[in-house]
Amino acid sequence: MITFHTFSELSLKDAVSLWNKGFEHYLIPITLTVDTFVQRTANEGISLDHSIVAFDEKTPIGFVANAFRTYQGQKIAWNGGTGIIPDYRGKGIGRLLIEQAISLYREQAVHVSTLEALSENERAIRLYENMGYQTKDRLLMFQTTDALLSNAFLPRSNHEDYFTLKKASPAELGFLPIYRNDRAWQTQWESLRSGELVLAYNKHSGEVIGYSLYRSIYNEQGELSTIILYQCEVDPSVSNAANIINEMLTEVYAPHRGACKRMTINLSSTNHLVIEALGRAGFTLQLEQVYMVQHV
User: Fold this and answer.
1) Which keywords are on file for this protein (predicted)?
2) Within this chain, do residues 91 and 157 fall inside the same structural domain, yes or no?
Protein backbone atom coordinates (compact mmCIF):
# COMPACT_ATOMS: atom_id res chain seq x y z
CA MET A 1 0.00 0.00 0.00
CA ILE A 2 1.33 3.42 -1.02
CA THR A 3 1.25 6.09 1.69
CA PHE A 4 2.63 9.61 1.82
CA HIS A 5 4.79 11.30 4.42
CA THR A 6 7.34 14.13 4.43
CA PHE A 7 11.10 14.44 4.21
CA SER A 8 11.14 15.80 7.76
CA GLU A 9 10.01 12.39 9.01
CA LEU A 10 13.19 10.77 7.64
CA SER A 11 16.61 10.89 9.22
CA LEU A 12 19.04 13.11 7.36
CA LYS A 13 20.99 10.05 6.24
CA ASP A 14 17.83 8.34 4.91
CA ALA A 15 16.70 11.55 3.17
CA VAL A 16 20.00 11.84 1.29
CA SER A 17 19.91 8.13 0.43
CA LEU A 18 16.39 8.49 -1.02
CA TRP A 19 17.41 11.58 -3.00
CA ASN A 20 20.36 9.78 -4.57
CA LYS A 21 18.37 6.62 -5.35
CA GLY A 22 15.57 8.74 -6.80
CA PHE A 23 17.98 10.23 -9.34
CA GLU A 24 19.96 7.05 -9.98
CA HIS A 25 20.50 6.50 -13.74
CA TYR A 26 19.05 9.96 -14.36
CA LEU A 27 20.07 11.80 -17.52
CA ILE A 28 22.28 14.06 -15.40
CA PRO A 29 23.74 12.79 -12.12
CA ILE A 30 22.43 14.69 -9.08
CA THR A 31 24.22 12.76 -6.35
CA LEU A 32 24.44 14.67 -3.06
CA THR A 33 26.35 14.21 0.17
CA VAL A 34 24.80 15.11 3.51
CA ASP A 35 26.61 18.45 3.39
CA THR A 36 25.51 19.32 -0.15
CA PHE A 37 21.94 18.16 0.58
CA VAL A 38 21.75 20.53 3.55
CA GLN A 39 23.31 23.32 1.48
CA ARG A 40 20.91 22.81 -1.42
CA THR A 41 17.91 22.70 0.91
CA ALA A 42 18.93 25.98 2.52
CA ASN A 43 19.90 27.79 -0.69
CA GLU A 44 16.73 26.88 -2.55
CA GLY A 45 14.37 27.29 0.40
CA ILE A 46 13.19 23.69 0.19
CA SER A 47 10.74 22.88 2.98
CA LEU A 48 11.36 19.41 4.40
CA ASP A 49 8.01 19.67 6.20
CA HIS A 50 6.24 20.15 2.86
CA SER A 51 8.34 17.87 0.65
CA ILE A 52 6.41 14.70 -0.06
CA VAL A 53 7.77 11.16 0.26
CA ALA A 54 5.93 8.11 -1.08
CA PHE A 55 6.25 4.86 0.90
CA ASP A 56 5.48 1.29 -0.08
CA GLU A 57 4.76 -0.12 3.36
CA LYS A 58 7.88 0.97 5.27
CA THR A 59 10.11 1.63 2.26
CA PRO A 60 10.53 5.17 0.88
CA ILE A 61 10.25 4.91 -2.91
CA GLY A 62 9.93 8.43 -4.29
CA PHE A 63 9.61 12.10 -3.50
CA VAL A 64 8.78 15.63 -4.57
CA ALA A 65 10.94 18.37 -3.03
CA ASN A 66 8.89 21.55 -2.56
CA ALA A 67 9.86 25.15 -1.92
CA PHE A 68 7.77 28.30 -1.48
CA ARG A 69 8.29 32.04 -1.91
CA THR A 70 5.96 35.03 -1.85
CA TYR A 71 6.41 37.93 -4.25
CA GLN A 72 4.09 40.93 -4.46
CA GLY A 73 1.38 39.06 -2.57
CA GLN A 74 1.52 35.93 -4.73
CA LYS A 75 2.68 32.64 -3.24
CA ILE A 76 4.84 30.63 -5.65
CA ALA A 77 5.70 26.95 -5.29
CA TRP A 78 8.65 25.20 -6.90
CA ASN A 79 9.03 21.49 -7.50
CA GLY A 80 12.75 21.25 -6.81
CA GLY A 81 13.02 17.63 -7.85
CA THR A 82 10.83 14.59 -8.45
CA GLY A 83 12.64 11.29 -7.96
CA ILE A 84 11.56 7.64 -8.02
CA ILE A 85 13.84 4.78 -7.03
CA PRO A 86 14.60 2.54 -10.04
CA ASP A 87 12.48 -0.50 -9.07
CA TYR A 88 9.33 1.64 -8.88
CA ARG A 89 9.64 3.63 -12.09
CA GLY A 90 6.94 3.21 -14.71
CA LYS A 91 4.36 2.18 -12.10
CA GLY A 92 2.44 5.44 -11.73
CA ILE A 93 4.24 6.63 -8.61
CA GLY A 94 5.23 9.89 -10.29
CA ARG A 95 1.61 10.74 -11.06
CA LEU A 96 0.59 9.99 -7.47
CA LEU A 97 3.35 12.23 -6.15
CA ILE A 98 2.43 15.13 -8.44
CA GLU A 99 -1.23 14.76 -7.43
CA GLN A 100 -0.20 14.98 -3.79
CA ALA A 101 1.99 18.01 -4.52
CA ILE A 102 -0.79 19.88 -6.32
CA SER A 103 -3.16 19.12 -3.46
CA LEU A 104 -0.57 20.49 -1.03
CA TYR A 105 -0.15 23.65 -3.13
CA ARG A 106 -3.89 24.28 -2.91
CA GLU A 107 -3.84 23.76 0.86
CA GLN A 108 -0.97 26.27 1.07
CA ALA A 109 -2.90 28.86 -1.01
CA VAL A 110 -0.28 28.77 -3.77
CA HIS A 111 -1.06 30.92 -6.81
CA VAL A 112 1.53 29.52 -9.24
CA SER A 113 3.61 26.34 -9.21
CA THR A 114 6.75 25.95 -11.32
CA LEU A 115 9.28 23.29 -12.25
CA GLU A 116 12.01 22.50 -14.75
CA ALA A 117 12.59 19.32 -16.75
CA LEU A 118 15.30 18.32 -19.18
CA SER A 119 14.03 18.84 -22.72
CA GLU A 120 14.98 15.29 -23.67
CA ASN A 121 13.04 13.82 -20.73
CA GLU A 122 9.88 13.53 -22.79
CA ARG A 123 8.23 11.06 -20.44
CA ALA A 124 8.43 13.45 -17.48
CA ILE A 125 7.24 16.39 -19.61
CA ARG A 126 4.18 14.42 -20.75
CA LEU A 127 3.37 13.59 -17.13
CA TYR A 128 3.58 17.23 -16.10
CA GLU A 129 1.47 18.31 -19.07
CA ASN A 130 -1.16 15.72 -18.17
CA MET A 131 -1.18 17.16 -14.64
CA GLY A 132 -1.90 20.67 -15.91
CA TYR A 133 1.55 22.20 -16.37
CA GLN A 134 2.36 24.21 -19.48
CA THR A 135 5.75 25.02 -20.97
CA LYS A 136 6.45 28.73 -20.56
CA ASP A 137 10.08 28.96 -21.62
CA ARG A 138 13.19 27.06 -22.62
CA LEU A 139 16.17 27.33 -20.29
CA LEU A 140 19.66 27.22 -21.74
CA MET A 141 23.08 26.31 -20.41
CA PHE A 142 25.91 27.78 -22.46
CA GLN A 143 29.57 27.18 -21.70
CA THR A 144 33.12 27.87 -22.76
CA THR A 145 36.37 26.82 -21.11
CA ASP A 146 38.65 28.82 -23.38
CA ALA A 147 40.26 32.12 -22.46
CA LEU A 148 38.18 35.00 -23.75
CA LEU A 149 39.61 37.70 -25.97
CA SER A 150 39.73 41.11 -24.35
CA ASN A 151 37.16 42.27 -26.88
CA ALA A 152 35.00 39.13 -26.65
CA PHE A 153 31.83 41.15 -26.17
CA LEU A 154 32.59 43.93 -28.63
CA PRO A 155 31.35 46.03 -30.23
CA ARG A 156 31.26 48.02 -27.03
CA SER A 157 30.29 51.66 -27.04
CA ASN A 158 31.61 54.73 -25.34
CA HIS A 159 29.02 54.74 -22.59
CA GLU A 160 30.46 57.51 -20.48
CA ASP A 161 27.58 59.85 -21.28
CA TYR A 162 24.57 57.68 -20.51
CA PHE A 163 25.20 54.71 -18.19
CA THR A 164 27.59 53.37 -15.62
CA LEU A 165 28.08 49.99 -13.93
CA LYS A 166 28.24 49.39 -10.18
CA LYS A 167 28.49 46.29 -7.99
CA ALA A 168 25.70 45.66 -5.47
CA SER A 169 24.22 43.01 -3.19
CA PRO A 170 21.86 40.50 -4.88
CA ALA A 171 19.18 41.34 -2.29
CA GLU A 172 18.80 44.77 -3.90
CA LEU A 173 17.09 43.13 -6.87
CA GLY A 174 13.96 42.58 -4.81
CA PHE A 175 13.35 46.34 -4.81
CA LEU A 176 13.94 47.00 -8.52
CA PRO A 177 10.96 47.47 -10.89
CA ILE A 178 12.85 45.78 -13.75
CA TYR A 179 13.66 42.62 -11.74
CA ARG A 180 12.37 39.45 -13.42
CA ASN A 181 11.05 37.32 -10.57
CA ASP A 182 9.27 35.16 -13.15
CA ARG A 183 12.56 33.57 -14.24
CA ALA A 184 13.52 30.04 -13.18
CA TRP A 185 13.70 29.47 -9.42
CA GLN A 186 17.44 28.87 -9.15
CA THR A 187 18.20 32.09 -11.05
CA GLN A 188 16.37 34.30 -8.55
CA TRP A 189 18.29 36.39 -6.03
CA GLU A 190 16.97 34.42 -3.04
CA SER A 191 18.90 31.39 -4.30
CA LEU A 192 22.03 33.50 -4.81
CA ARG A 193 22.36 35.54 -1.63
CA SER A 194 26.11 34.95 -1.67
CA GLY A 195 26.36 35.70 -5.39
CA GLU A 196 27.35 38.90 -7.18
CA LEU A 197 25.32 41.60 -8.86
CA VAL A 198 26.20 44.25 -11.45
CA LEU A 199 23.75 47.11 -11.92
CA ALA A 200 23.63 49.46 -14.92
CA TYR A 201 22.53 52.98 -13.99
CA ASN A 202 21.27 55.72 -16.29
CA LYS A 203 23.70 58.53 -15.48
CA HIS A 204 21.12 61.24 -16.03
CA SER A 205 18.09 59.85 -14.20
CA GLY A 206 19.90 57.62 -11.70
CA GLU A 207 17.50 54.76 -12.51
CA VAL A 208 18.64 51.16 -12.80
CA ILE A 209 18.26 50.13 -16.43
CA GLY A 210 19.94 46.72 -16.36
CA TYR A 211 21.42 44.04 -14.14
CA SER A 212 23.45 40.84 -14.22
CA LEU A 213 23.24 38.25 -11.44
CA TYR A 214 26.11 35.79 -11.29
CA ARG A 215 28.46 33.77 -9.09
CA SER A 216 32.23 33.22 -9.09
CA ILE A 217 33.65 29.95 -7.77
CA TYR A 218 37.23 29.53 -6.57
CA ASN A 219 39.22 26.31 -6.09
CA GLU A 220 41.11 25.29 -2.96
CA GLN A 221 44.15 27.28 -4.11
CA GLY A 222 42.06 30.45 -4.35
CA GLU A 223 42.09 30.44 -8.14
CA LEU A 224 39.03 31.37 -10.15
CA SER A 225 37.58 28.14 -11.58
CA THR A 226 34.02 28.97 -12.70
CA ILE A 227 31.82 31.97 -13.45
CA ILE A 228 28.09 31.27 -13.70
CA LEU A 229 25.61 33.79 -15.13
CA TYR A 230 22.00 33.37 -13.97
CA GLN A 231 20.22 36.51 -15.15
CA CYS A 232 21.20 39.35 -17.48
CA GLU A 233 18.36 41.78 -18.11
CA VAL A 234 17.87 45.27 -19.48
CA ASP A 235 14.85 47.56 -19.20
CA PRO A 236 12.86 46.84 -22.40
CA SER A 237 12.24 50.56 -22.92
CA VAL A 238 15.96 51.22 -23.33
CA SER A 239 17.07 51.68 -26.94
CA ASN A 240 20.73 50.79 -26.45
CA ALA A 241 20.14 47.44 -24.73
CA ALA A 242 22.84 45.57 -26.71
CA ASN A 243 25.52 48.02 -25.56
CA ILE A 244 24.52 47.66 -21.92
CA ILE A 245 24.50 43.87 -22.20
CA ASN A 246 27.97 43.83 -23.77
CA GLU A 247 29.35 45.97 -20.96
CA MET A 248 27.72 43.84 -18.26
CA LEU A 249 28.92 40.58 -19.80
CA THR A 250 32.45 41.95 -19.94
CA GLU A 251 32.21 42.82 -16.24
CA VAL A 252 30.74 39.41 -15.32
CA TYR A 253 32.98 37.15 -17.38
CA ALA A 254 36.18 39.20 -16.87
CA PRO A 255 38.13 38.25 -20.04
CA HIS A 256 41.34 39.57 -18.48
CA ARG A 257 41.29 36.76 -15.90
CA GLY A 258 42.29 34.07 -18.41
CA ALA A 259 40.90 30.59 -18.98
CA CYS A 260 38.28 29.12 -16.65
CA LYS A 261 34.83 27.59 -17.03
CA ARG A 262 32.35 30.32 -17.98
CA MET A 263 28.73 29.30 -18.23
CA THR A 264 25.05 30.14 -17.84
CA ILE A 265 22.47 28.18 -15.86
CA ASN A 266 18.79 28.26 -16.83
CA LEU A 267 19.17 31.33 -19.03
CA SER A 268 15.81 32.26 -20.59
CA SER A 269 15.60 31.55 -24.32
CA THR A 270 13.75 34.86 -24.70
CA ASN A 271 16.94 36.75 -23.85
CA HIS A 272 18.01 37.02 -27.48
CA LEU A 273 20.61 39.77 -27.15
CA VAL A 274 22.48 37.90 -24.42
CA ILE A 275 22.38 34.64 -26.39
CA GLU A 276 23.73 36.40 -29.49
CA ALA A 277 26.55 38.01 -27.50
CA LEU A 278 27.51 34.69 -25.91
CA GLY A 279 27.56 33.01 -29.32
CA ARG A 280 29.88 35.66 -30.74
CA ALA A 281 32.19 35.18 -27.74
CA GLY A 282 32.50 31.44 -28.41
CA PHE A 283 30.02 29.99 -25.91
CA THR A 284 28.24 26.82 -27.05
CA LEU A 285 24.93 25.30 -25.95
CA GLN A 286 25.43 22.34 -23.61
CA LEU A 287 21.99 21.65 -22.15
CA GLU A 288 18.37 22.68 -22.47
CA GLN A 289 15.47 22.44 -20.05
CA VAL A 290 11.81 23.40 -20.22
CA TYR A 291 10.34 25.79 -17.68
CA MET A 292 6.81 24.71 -16.79
CA VAL A 293 4.10 26.60 -14.92
CA GLN A 294 0.69 25.80 -13.53
CA HIS A 295 -1.78 28.31 -12.11
CA VAL A 296 -3.13 26.59 -9.03
Assistant:
1) Transferase
2) no
